[in-house]
Design goal:
The complex is a heterodimer of chains A (121) and B (191).
Chain A lengths: L10 H9 L9 H12 L4 H61 L7 H4 L5
Chain B lengths: L7 H6 L6 H11 L2 H23 L3 H17 L10 H19 L23 H6 L3 H12 L4 H8 L3 H19 L1 H7 L1
Classes of the chains: A mainly alpha (121), B mainly alpha (191).
Chain lengths: 121, 191
């Protein structure tokens, strides 16, 4: 074998190659860490299976809260309008006779003489 | 560290002698932690060694690679058809992740010239492991993938984004550099 050519590894070299890194192993914590990460990603465990249901419950609760808030807001607005309408009607009721008088006093509303003229045959 | 939550019902259902196919099916169907635990114990040691060799002997980086490899493996279990060996499939993912790590660090220079085969010039004889770890990452990756992991030049070319010819050239130089460190007399003659 020369420096410019390379045949194959010798059996001893092959054995050495096979042993490279063979005695290395990860720390035991890696397993728990990996499983925890997989769980967090929803890819492993009963927690992952429960997650969609939990999400659904949260979604429903949020929808109910939004609906209730909208209903309360609508009810509040309705109450205010009702109060305003009642106030207006009271105001209108007290102002109505004066307006009626004013209307009767208005020349345009007075019946004309021609209007009252009745021709009998 | 939070306690590991295990589904006791699933532990009872999974036999330790279950095949990889059965474990993968249990993970896909039930997200079974017991099945994953068995699969992890079976294939992590060799996956870790693959990663450790490619990243240059850094155990922390190799652990990160293994974790990421499991994330990718579990999320794509549907792509494993069962026709190939699960361990080989997982080691392929680990190798891919490890290559990405080395590449992101800017250490994967595959067009380096022959003078840069080794990161440092060793002064004395080395054993095989030290000789391989002393190689520049690009050369080390090709040698590890071909001579230890059993990848073909075409597969290496695809993974590294080079041609098969470049892979062969890198392997030749890497082998020569390793042998030079195993035989210091030869190294001295060549320098």
């Amino acid at each position: 074998m020369t420096q410019d050519s390379f045949d194959e590894w010798t059996p001893d070299e092959r054995a050495g190659l096979a042993e490279v890194g063979q005695h290395r192993s990860p720390r035991s914590e890696l397993k728990a860490r990996t499983m925890e990460t997989l769980r967090d990603q929803g890819m492993l465990g009963i927690g992952a299976r429960a997650r969609p249901r939990r999400r659904l419950v949260f979604g429903l609760a949020a929808a109910i809260v939004v609906f209730a808030a909208g209903m309360l807001a609508g009810y509040g607005v309705g109450l205010r309008r009702q109060a305003a309408t009642a106030r207006d009607s009271v105001t209108n009721a007290s102002a109505a006779p004066a307006r009626e008088v004013a209307r009767l006093d208005t020349p345009s509303t007075q019946p004309t003489a021609a209007g009252r003229h009745v021709v009998w045959f | 560290m939070p306690p590991v939550r295990l589904n006791v019902r699933m532990i009872d259902a999974i036999d330790a002698s279950a095949t990889d196919e059965a474990l993968v099916a249990a993970i896909r169907r039930d997200r079974s932690e017991a099945a994953f635990s068995l699969l992890y114990d079976r294939h992590t040691p060799r996956g870790f060694q693959t990663a450790w060799r490619i990243v240059g002997g850094n155990p922390h980086e190799a652990e990160d690679v293994v974790q990421e490899a499991w994330m990718r493996a579990v999320s794509s279990l549907g792509r494993w058809t069962g026709q190939s060996d699960f361990g080989a499939w997982f080691r392929g993912i680990a190798a891919h992740v490890a290559i990405d790590v080395v590449r992101k660090q800017g250490r994967l220079e595959l067009d380096a010239d022959a003078d840069a085969v080794c990161e440092q010039t060793p002064a004395e004889w080395m054993d095989m492991e030290a000789a391989i770890l002393s190689l520049a990452p690009g050369y080390r990756t090709v040698l590890v993938l071909h001579d230890i992991e059993g990848f073909t030049h075409e597969e290496i070319a695809t993974r590294l984004g080079i041609t098969a010819g470049t892979s062969k050239g890198q392997l030749f130089k890497a082998r020569r550099a390793v042998r030079a460190r195993l035989e210091p007399g030869l190294e001295r003659r060549s320098v």
